[in-house]
Design brief:
With about 475 residues, this protein is of the alpha/beta class. The chain has 14 helices and 18 strands.
């Protein structure tokens, strides 16, 4: 009997013990040294004699934002579902990260607001808070410490194919053109991946791509943090479209180096901070009082802005002809609105899909359809959560999926109830933290509880159901 998407998702995200897998590959090549690429390399190191990562950036650099990650200076979230996987693939990762200065945000020192209303306490899990470059540097250090992983600094220029499979990777480096023979290739080249072009050039199908225009704008700034252990370390203030239109919300969090990191997100023509003066004014005036304290701290450097025109996903499961020994991971498959913080955690789950696929001892002479089917469960879950929220914004034009009005109404009922009901809040966190599949929120018991909670709240506030 086929397993449900929820069961597959939950099993992919489990913190299962690893057993030493058999080596089934000679050389694996990973295109890109992003978080998704590093995690793919980590998994492949268990299954290949050698793993080569090719990236145009110097991956030996310190914990600074890389040129290949233009949004690297913005706030990034490592959701609890992603931390489970990092501790799985890098035993002791949490302890090492904390020892290096990553901030532990316990439920006691974080707050969440929706439309200015403080939410009740939800999940009891700790969250690790750090800048993207710092966290990526820890993952990179652990990956590159593996004896069978090496890095080539260069720009990937194409792939070579045999009759049925990819055979090598072409690149340009400071020493000129080169080629790496490959028994297996993982594309981790991000949302601008050229894999589709190279597949077409090789006589294969290009994966269809879905784009949803979101025109999201966000700005992030660093501040000096005077308190080593502040009473409140993280605040997330989100706003619904009904209340704020195209203002998405704001967040601040304690990060390494005794700093605060603060972000404002918006849509369409709303710019969250064209200058430091405007950014600070918005923090003080548009959000909850905690933001004013951060805005009053010393600003470190400039406000960094970023604009993303669309969310996009490539559907490899739709292909009828696809070369063997080739997969794609991370943003190269699905790139969401970064406001929801799903990117890094999705990359960890893609890596777990790859591990499950290779651990099943697949027929490598055939396309990796089993891998893409597993990965699609993860992509569908994250895509559904982020795009349904984006579609509520006035400036987001659609397209609206079938059944959107009903699913949106249910989602709003659950979101509203999560403000005041601890049970709903914990279930909501389990899904938004990518520890549980979104269908867990659509269970009859959860929906009925949310309706009862909201009805009681309306009566308490003097609002009749007829209103």
């Amino acid at each position: 009997m086929p397993r449900s998407a929820a069961a597959i998702f939950d099993s992919i995200g489990a913190a299962e013990d690893r057993t030493k897998p058999a080596v089934v590959l000679d050389r694996a090549v990973v295109l890109g040294g992003s978080v998704a690429g590093l995690l793919a390399a980590r998994v492949l190191a268990d299954h290949a004699e050698s793993v080569v990562i090719i990236d145009r950036d110097d991956l030996g650099a310190t914990a600074e934002a890389r040129a290949g990650v233009p949004q690297g200076s913005q706030i990034h979230a490592l959701l609890p579902g992603g931390l489970i996987q990092l501790d799985r693939w890098y035993p002791g990762f949490s302890e090492q990260a904390i020892a290096r200065g990553v901030y532990v945000v316990s439920p006691d020192v974080r707050r969440s607001y929706l439309d200015g209303r403080r939410k009740v306490r939800g999940s009891d899990v700790d969250i690790l808070s750090a800048s993207r470059p710092f966290l990526e540097s820890l993952i990179r250090e652990r990956t590159l410490a593996l004896p069978n992983v090496k890095v080539v600094t260069g720009r990937v220029t194409g792939l070579d194919f045999g009759d049925d499979a990819v055979t090598s990777v072409r690149y340009e480096s400071a020493d000129g053109p080169g080629a790496e023979p490959a028994d297996f290739v993982a594309d981790a080249m991000g949302r601008s991946s050229r894999l589709g072009d190279w597949l077409e050039q090789g006589g294969w199908e290009r994966p269809p791509m879905t784009r949803m225009i979101i025109n999201v704008n966000y700005a992030t700034a660093m501040f000096r943090r005077a308190e080593s252990r502040p009473e409140i370390a993280t605040v997330l203030a989100t706003s619904t479209a009904k209340v704020s239109g195209d203002i998405g919300g704001a967040m601040f969090t304690a990060v390494e180096g005794d700093r605060w990191m603060a972000m404002i997100g918006a849509y369409g023509e709303v710019r969250p901070g064209r200058s430091s003066e405007e950014f600070l004014r918005r923090l003080r005036e548009d959000f909850t009082p905690e933001f004013e304290r951060v805005a009053g701290s010393e600003l470190l450097g400039e406000v960094k802005t970023y604009r993303q025109a669309d969310s996009r996903r490539r559907d490899f499961t739709a292909l009828t002809r696809f070369p063997a020994r080739l997969v794609s991971v991370g943003d190269a498959v699905s790139s969401f609105n970064p406001i929801y913080g799903q990117g890094m955690t999705s990359a960890t789950l893609h890596a777990s899909c790859l591990a499950r696929y290779l651990g099943s001892r697949p027929d490598l002479a055939r396309p990796a359809r089993e891998f893409f089917a597993l990965q699609k469960v993860v992509v569908d879950a994250a895509w559904g959560m982020s795009t349904s929220a984006d579609l509520a914004r006035p400036s987001v034009p659609g397209p609206y999926p079938r059944g959107y009005r009903l699913s949106s109404w249910i989602g709003n009922q659950i979101l509203t109830a999560s403000v005041v009901d601890p049970v709903i809040a914990r279930r909501f966190d389990g899904v938004t933290h990518m520890r549980r599949h979104p269908s867990h929120l659509a269970s009859p018991g959860t929906i009925l509880r949310a309706l009862r909670v909201n009805r009681r709240a309306r009566r308490r506030d003097g609002v009749t159901d007829a209103a």
